[in-house]
């Protein structure tokens, strides 16, 4: 007899129920902002999707096919968040990947409702008590194994906007849904992502901005004490753009500081530009 | 506008497409053997499912509901493998878990085709080049984040039956789909699972057998050198039962050794009993 499946007690499509995304998280994803008929930073998103697929030995969907999916789903939406998931097709029971072919989901969510104060006065970050698990083969990849982030998102204090997560040696790597930058002596420092963490496209874009602006920028091992000693700090992702930090643990900043403000303007991210003059 | 979703370019049910199993691997699972009208070790499986759900703050489905699902799906199958997945219900975008309620999938797969030699002469294990990521909050839990095991299952040599995986300090923790035991001076040693690995129900059952047989048994940090020095070794899981090791790296054993053979009989696992006299 062949494979059969029940979902909530009802017979369901066995192909869908065998998805390796469901069983193992064997796939990658992108979360992006849609605005006025276009996916913001589409070229960067697609390039990162292709590279993340390669890390899992997965053939990525054609870029035009994804662009067509987005256009279909976004008809009638002026602003929205889209999520693209590419997962390995089912091919029998067991961990062994028998397929390189991916299947794709594209989802459209209601537009985010940004708070002006997050951009104009900054947000509050705290250190998560949940550490990041380290798998060097997956470092930097935006894959579907996200329980670290789910665990870190439980039990936040009400006044906290983002939690920062550390690796085993105590170095800060990223926020639960963002990359992190510190500003020190007029230069940028962002954590190394060689053991864990996601190399997000907004992080990439900010490093490009820094190069254009002749701002020194480097990747480094960044401990909480280094962040406490920073002149400015901010977190970023493709949906929110850049959020300056106004507080981390006992440290407060007047946010955004001058370097962060200049980067916010240079970034060209539409939600950021809505709020910085 | 509400959430909409495409799967492979076609509009699909947005509820299914938002499953937190798909997006984050936010759930747990069980793989079990069905034989002659019953799930082998159902009580142990259900107990472990309830405990694994609790680790993710997830309400488990009622045991009778799951038993009814299995009975419906297994009608007409004398032997099969069943998989139960319990994942958190979707509740908005983002990592934060807003729901404790789980949704369930139950799948039936064709019966395994055991090879008599695996039980009577043993199997070959090799050390995986892929390490286990460590998340103490998830240690022992059979959750849906399984990329470590997917990566470890690539590129096996053709004569290898199972790969053993190590944690960061080099200690051996488990097989890619099994737990590991070494026999030394007439007693059992199985790796500690306080940092990573799954505490499988066959491991549990073997420790119970050892107690009944007055065999000393302990959990310990087990390095590859300790395994090479063992008198006997075996791997186990709920589907295969017990596979004695006849080779690990350069070490060979005459398998099964006397302690392993006694445990195979005492275990009462039907596939094992099919092959040991």
From TrEMBL, chains A, B:
GO terms for cellular component: cytosol. Keywords: Folate biosynthesis, Lyase, Pyridoxal phosphate. Signal peptide: none annotated. Pathway: Cofactor biosynthesis; tetrahydrofolate biosynthesis; 4-aminobenzoate from chorismate: step 2/2. It holds the Pfam family Aminotran_4. One of its GO terms (biological process) is folic acid biosynthetic process. One of its GO terms (molecular function) is 4-amino-4-deoxychorismate lyase activity. Its EC number is 4.1.3.38. Its cofactor is pyridoxal 5'-phosphate. Involved in the biosynthesis of p-aminobenzoate (PABA), a precursor of tetrahydrofolate. Converts 4-amino-4-deoxychorismate into 4-aminobenzoate (PABA) and pyruvate. NCBIfam families: pabC_Proteo. Belongs to the class-IV pyridoxal-phosphate-dependent aminotransferase family. Homodimer. This is Aminodeoxychorismate lyase. It comes from Sinimarinibacterium flocculans.
């Amino acid at each position: 007899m062949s494979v059969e499946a029940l979902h909530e007690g009802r017979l369901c499509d066995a192909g869908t129920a065998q998805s390796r995304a469901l069983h193992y998280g064997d796939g990658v994803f992108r979360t992006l902002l849609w605005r006025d008929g276009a996916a913001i930073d589409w070229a960067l998103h697609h390039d990162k999707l292709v590279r993340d697929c390669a890390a899992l030995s997965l053939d990525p969907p054609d870029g035009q096919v994804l662009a067509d999916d987005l256009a279909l789903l976004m008809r009638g939406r002026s602003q929205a968040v889209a999520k693209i998931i590419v997962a390995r097709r089912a091919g029998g029971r067991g961990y062994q990947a028998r397929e390189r072919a991916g299947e794709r989901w594209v989802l459209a969510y209601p537009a985010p409702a940004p708070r002006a104060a997050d951009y104009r006065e900054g947000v509050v970050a705290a250190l998560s008590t949940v550490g990041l698990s380290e798998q060097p083969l997956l470092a930097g990849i935006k894959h579907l194994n996200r329980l670290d982030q789910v665990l870190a998102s439980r039990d936040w204090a009400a006044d906290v906007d983002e939690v920062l997560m550390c690796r085993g040696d105590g170095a800060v790597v990223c926020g639960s849904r963002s990359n992190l930058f510190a500003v020190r002596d007029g230069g940028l420092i962002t954590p190394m992502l060689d053991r864990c963490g996601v190399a997000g496209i907004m992080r990439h874009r900010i490093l490009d901005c820094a190069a254009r602006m002749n701002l020194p920028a480097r990747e480094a091992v960044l401990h909480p004490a280094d962040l406490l000693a920073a002149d400015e700090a901010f977190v970023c992702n493709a949906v929110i753009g850049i959020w300056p930090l106004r507080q981390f643990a006992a440290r407060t900043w007047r946010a955004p500081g001058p370097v962060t403000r200049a980067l916010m303007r240079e970034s060209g991210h539409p939600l950021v530009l809505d709020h910085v003059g």
